[in-house]
Amino acid sequence: MSVRSGILAVLGESELYGLQLHTELEARTGRVGSINVGQIYSTLERLGTAGLVTITGSTDDGLPLYGLTAEGRRAADAWLDDPTLGGVSAWGDMVFKVLLASSLRGADARPLLQGYRAAWRALPAPGDTGALGEATGLARQHLAEAALSWLDDLERMPDGLAGLRRPLRNERPRRGRRPSAPEQRDR
């Protein structure tokens, strides 16, 4: 799962602060994979250095709001349009991207689903021979069948992919309590 690309995709919806990005990514992907809040902030820093994200302002209480640059928007769009299967984590990466893309209000995830269908169908037969090669081929075949079935079932849901769209949350995620008086901090 690409937290980097997921951050860019969610920022395509609106300017957000770090913890809000974390909450949106987890809510939109059904918490597929565990995303560390610190990973969000370190990734935002790297995205800023790469010229893909910029600080666009701040919240009422001083949290930096992050937004996409033009290059960041192009990178997000390119990632959302790419159904490439990535090695060992192909299943998790696909689930993360499909759920995220389907949740965005402006994205049409159907081409992404079609691309994944084609990619799963085009998986090459294993080159190895013997029991290990056969077992690997069976695993790949069953994973492809499961992926194709899941993609079909998504589109057959009562509201189809549109049922996965969601607006950005406006409520602030809870943060730790802060002592209200200086003397409480000294205890």
**Coarse structural class:** mainly alpha
- In whole angstroms, how far apart are the ends? 43 Å
In percent, how helical is the residue content?
A: 40-55%
Chain-averaged pLDDT: 83
Strand element count: 2
Shape: elongated
Radius of gyration: 20 Å
How many distinct helices? 8
H/E order of the elements? HHHEEHHHHH
Major pleated sheet: 2 strands, antiparallel
Lateral strand order in the biggest sheet: 1-2
Domain module tally:
2
Low-confidence stretches: 176-187
- Assess the beta-strand content as a share of residues: 5-15%
InterPro entries: Tscrpt_reg_PadR_N, WH-like_DNA-bd_sf, WH_DNA-bd_sf
Region (Disordered): 162-187
Protein name: PadR family transcriptional regulator
Organism: Herbiconiux oxytropis
Layout of helices and strands:
Elements: H1 3-11, H2 18-28, H3 37-49, E1 53-58, E2 64-68, H4 70-80, H5 90-103, H6 110-121, H7 130-156, H8 182-185
Antiparallel strand pairs: 1-2
Helix pairs in contact: 1-2, 1-4, 2-3, 5-6, 6-7
Summary, kept brief:
This is PadR family transcriptional regulator. By secondary structure, the chain is mostly helical.
